[in-house]
Amino acid sequence: MNPTDETLSAYLDDELDADARAALESLLARDAAARERLQALSDSDARLRAAMPLGSAEADPLAALILGGTASARRAPAPVMTMPRPALRRRRRLASVMAMAAGLGAIVLGQALLTRHDSGDAGAAAPWQQADTGWQAALDRQPSGVAGATRIELSFAAADGRHCRLFAQAGGEGLACRAATDTGWQVVAWDATAPQAGASDGYQPAGASAALDSAMNRLGGGDALAPEQERQLIERQWR
Amino acid sequence: MPDFRRELVELLPRLRRFALALCGSPADADDLVQASVERALLYAAQWQPGTRMDSWLYKIAQNLWRDELRAHRRRAEPLDEAEQVVGEDGRDVTLQQLQIDEARRAMRALPDEQRAVLALVVLDGLSYQQAADVIGVPIGTVMSRLARARSRMAEALGGRAVGVGAG
């Protein structure tokens, strides 16, 4: 029984009810073809989003016309355009799906625990355990949605002014933040690797770990940055 | 009124993106944005503070496009020559630009009603209910149009036609 494109599409948009979602997720866990189809649909979504970036409100040729002579309106700082709130939740869900497809599970480690994990691990080590700092470079320079050893899922500005990025790689899935004055990224939450998806045991459905979600909620702040905003931050080296 | 105008300005980037998705060409999108803004200002009194201005504005744009502007669309026009993507080197720019052009062409090849749902849900993040309200169709229609639109986009961009039929 293959899921229809309609079901997969509604799943990407977080529009399935809990039962339908659970049914689909357990099917996705078993069915590589369905996962591949989901990936294809979400990839083309990402391509489309990248091709249609948002401009700035302030620079819009109609802005001055609309505001006319209202001096108070002109003094008010134009807020940064963000995506509507549900978008972040959807993108987070999608990130979970892709993590699941890669066979990733969901054990989060608090920041206090991170420093204790200083020994190397065979195969899928967490970022801070790796000699290879490619993940740092990816966080610095890679746009969201681009495939690579490290895949960045989304970026957002936290309430404290730091910029944070959700990323996934062979070892798991994590959330890293940096302030303008920081020299590098700090991993604030991490989902470690679980057995391969599709294995009879050990499978965790997408979103089963609310850990990254709750870390993101704790950080607060805006919604996912638009590609154009992200591009500018990359150019400015996140300062 | 200043509040209304300010909120309208804040929505301009999203309105522009919606218009570009709907029209396909930047010139038509400019016309549509301008006409929508004029109409929004004209009918400002009909907008209820506290309700979503984005949906209201999209509805204006969508109706204008469907009822008045679409018939006069300008077709023969190169793809977004005005928008250049800046990359680290020339090759980067070219590759990025090619990818962008390809995605936009794929979207432009979709039927109007599929482009509208794609723009509202995939690009703008509206819920199915909100998108259904803007377009004036049932939720089920939004769902099926989206699925068809995504399937065609994936085919055009992925180069693979692995359609998964009704199971």
What does this structure look like?
The complex is a heterodimer of chains A (239) and B (167). Chain A is built from 10 helices and 5 strands, in the order ααααααβααββββαα. Chain A is an alpha+beta fold. Chain A has a domain at 83-235. In chain A, strands 1-5-4-3-2 form a 5-stranded antiparallel β-sheet, sandwiched between helices. In chain A, helix 1 packs across helix 3 and helix 2 crosses helix 3. The longest helix of chain A has 20 residues, at 32-51. Chain A starts with a helix and ends with a helix. Chain B has helices at 2-23, 26-42, 53-69, 90-108, 112-123, 128-135, 139-158. Chain B is built from 7 helices and no strands. Chain B folds into 2 domains: 1-72, RNA polymerase sigma factor, region 2, helix turn helix motif (Rna Polymerase Sigma Factor, Chain: A); 87-160, Winged helix-like DNA-binding domain superfamily/Winged helix DNA-binding domain (Arc Repressor Mutant, subunit A, Orthogonal Bundle). The longest helix of chain B is centred in the N-terminal third of the chain and has 22 residues, at 2-23. Chain B is an all-alpha fold and 167 residues long. In chain B, helix 2 crosses helix 3 (53-69), helix 4 (90-108) packs across helix 7 and helix 5 packs across helix 7 (139-158). In chain B, 69% of the residues lie in helices and 0% in strands. The model of chain B is unreliable at 76-88 and 160-167 (pLDDT under 50). The chains are: A alpha+beta (239), B mainly alpha (167).
